[in-house]
Automatic annotation (TrEMBL):
It comes from Coffea arabica (Arabian coffee). Keywords: NAD, Oxidoreductase. The keyword Lipid biosynthesis does not apply. GO terms for cellular component: nucleus. This is UDP-glucose 6-dehydrogenase. NAD(+) binds at residues 8-13, 33, 38, 86-90, 127-128, 161, 272-275, 342. It catalyses: UDP-alpha-D-glucose + 2 NAD(+) + H2O = UDP-alpha-D-glucuronate + 2 NADH + 3 H(+). The keyword Membrane does not apply. Pathway: Nucleotide-sugar biosynthesis; UDP-alpha-D-glucuronate biosynthesis; UDP-alpha-D-glucuronate from UDP-alpha-D-glucose: step 1/1. It comes from the Eukaryota. GO terms for biological process: glycosaminoglycan biosynthetic process; UDP-glucuronate biosynthetic process. Pfam families: UDPG_MGDP_dh, UDPG_MGDP_dh_C, UDPG_MGDP_dh_N. The lineage of its organism: Eukaryota, Viridiplantae, Streptophyta, Embryophyta, Tracheophyta. GO terms for molecular function: NAD binding; UDP-glucose 6-dehydrogenase activity. InterPro entries: 6-PGluconate_DH-like_C_sf, NAD(P)-bd_dom_sf, UDP-Glc/GDP-Man, UDP-Glc/GDP-Man_DH_C, UDP-Glc/GDP-Man_DH_C_sf, UDP-Glc/GDP-Man_DH_dimer, UDP-Glc/GDP-Man_DH_N, UDPglc_DH_euk.
Length: 471
């Protein structure tokens, strides 16, 4: 029986390995992590991450051919294929601080693999890493082990949180990069055979190592760039009376452009887009390509600008002050169908409103109060503009309360803000919400989840990103 071990039981390691276990009953899969609470949660009825369909997949194979464990060394030693799916955040100190990927976790995983291995292994980069990382990993592995054959593959993950299981069941493509040597090609073939259990052959793409590593950064940069492009257009729409939804529809009908990923919003979030673009910027700078670096930097600049613009719009609409005014924050996760708040625009928007002394009542169906408090007070690395990124002080937290639902969050509020596009927000009883709010009652829709015309008929003053404004 082939044995797979995955180091890192996070948003990527957990779901990807659960799907491999489900689709390949003949393979034994162990997911290991240094975090005890995370592994306990994977072994319980309350999985550590919220992802539609995940519970079901885990229940079907946990204890059969899928295991979660803190015994990292034992499972790595026994495995034929070791995936490494540890976090690769942005470096916060030293050389490359604020841009370069922090490979500390990766390096310690690689050293441990070299230490405990007694047989040949395929080591797979699942984490998103800078191009040429495999070269460093090869050095660490070969210099620290005694003649063991390691083949390094790059197999970046393209799943999106919120649709991870669907994406893993039916991927647009699976990318495998390897060395173009007989051993490298053999390793690529072995991994290909794993995916071939359920992924059609034409969707499994093989490339050299560096192309695979760079493709992941490129894909995230292109996706984020699309969001920043439509968000930049949304600002122009507001200034001119055009409607960004109509513009996106018309633009997306061009088959060269396509309709996906053209929704204007308060900005992109999530743990990957900003981190991966900064990483790309750093790589460009290190390779003497400052103009290319500047090009990608602008994608993040527009994202920061969009968040700042949203806060400014709220404050200016509410007669230039939100001091002491209750504002209901509806949604805190960075997108619907996830409880993940990493880099969510809600952090910057809430911090901006707290600086202006607003009273916030926050509701999100999947994010805990503890998480929100942590997010608002953590020191967040400011890559360029300090204004919105200041952490809320512990005293500012006195301005924050938490609500059980959207109705409680909006009761007696002067305004409500939609920051996540949860489906449940589309079917709220807005007449009831309006009746219980202060007047004039403002709606600031950062995700274009509500129908502004219907809300205006009720009496709300509505600001929707990229849409014509109230007169
Ligand atoms: P995560 O923080 O949720 O999980 C990483 C896990 O690795 C943590 O549980 C941590 O405890 C564990 N870990 C760190 N060092 C370890 C070690 N030495 N031994 C054992 N466990 C260790 O991160 P994630 O969101 O799953 O992302 C992992 C990687 O995948 C990152 O490089 C990320 O950029 C990339 N990625 C993420 C997504 C996403 O949507 N989250 C999508 C594609 C790619």
């Amino acid at each position: 029986m082939v044995k797979i071990c995955c180091i890192g039981a996070g948003y990527v390691g957990g779901p990807t390995m659960a799907v491999i276990a489900l689709k390949c009953p003949s393979i034994e899969v162990a997911v290991v992590d240094i975090s005890q609470p995370r592994i306990s949660a994977w072994n319980s009825d309350h999985l550590p991450i919220y992802e539609p369909g995940l519970d079901d997949v885990v229940k079907q194979c946990r204890g059969k051919n899928l295991f979660f464990s803190n015994d990292v060394e034992k499972h790595v030693a026994e495995a034929d294929i070791v995936f490494v799916s540890v976090n690769t955040p942005t470096k916060s100190q030293g050389l490359g601080a604020g841009k370069a990927a922090d490979l500390t976790y990766w390096e310690s995983a690689a050293r441990m693999i070299a230490d405990v291995s007694k047989s040949a292994k395929i080591v797979v980069e699942k984490s998103t890493v800078p191009v040429k990382t495999a070269e460093a990993i090869e050095k660490i592995l070969t210099h620290n082990s005694k003649g063991i054959n390691f083949q390094i593959l790059s197999n970046p993950e393209f799943l999106a949180e919120g649709t991870a299981i669907q994406d893993l069941f039916n991927p647009d493509r699976v990318l495998i990069g390897g060395r173009e040597t007989p051993e490298g090609l053999k390793a690529v073939q072995t991994l290909k055979e794993v995916y071939a259990h359920w992924v059609p052959e034409e969707r499994i793409i093989c490339s050299n190592l560096w192309s695979a590593e760079l493709s992941k950064l490129a894909a995230n940069a292109f996706l984020a760039q699309r969001i920043s492009s439509v968000n930049a257009m949304s600002a122009l729409c507001e200034a001119t009376g055009a409607d960004v939804s109509q513009v996106s529809h018309a633009v997306g009908k061009d088959t060269r452009i396509g309709p996906k990923f053209l929704n204007a919003s308060v900005g992109f979030g999530g743990s990957c887009f900003q981190k991966d673009i900064l990483n790309l910027v750093y790589i460009c700078e290190c390779n003497g390509l400052p103009e290319v670096a500047n090009y990608w930097k602008h994608v993040i600049k527009i994202n920061d600008y969009q968040k700042a613009r949203f806060v400014n719009r709220i404050v200016s609409s509410m007669f230039n002050t939100v001091s002491g005014k209750k504002i209901g924050i509806l949604g805190f996760a960075f997108k619907k169908d996830t409880g993940d708040t990493r880099e969510t625009p809600a952090i910057d928007v809430c911090r901006g409103l707290l600086v202006d002394k607003a009273q916030l009542s926050i509701y999100d169906p999947q994010v805990s109060q503890d998480q929100i408090q942590k997010d608002l007070t953590m020191v967040k690395f400011d890559w360029e503009h300090p204004v919105l990124l200041k952490p809320a002080s512990p005293t500012a937290l006195k301005q924050v309360s938490f609500a059980w639902d959207a109705y409680e969050a909006s009761k007696d509020a002067h305004g409500i803000c939609f920051l996540t596009e949860w489906d449940e927000f589309k079917t709220l009883d807005f007449q009831k919400i309006y009746d219980n709010m202060q007047k004039p009652a403002f709606v600031f829709d950062g995700r274009n989840v509500v129908n502004p015309d219907k809300l205006r008929q009720i009496g709300f003053i509505v600001y929707s990103i990229g849409k014509p404004l109230d007169q």
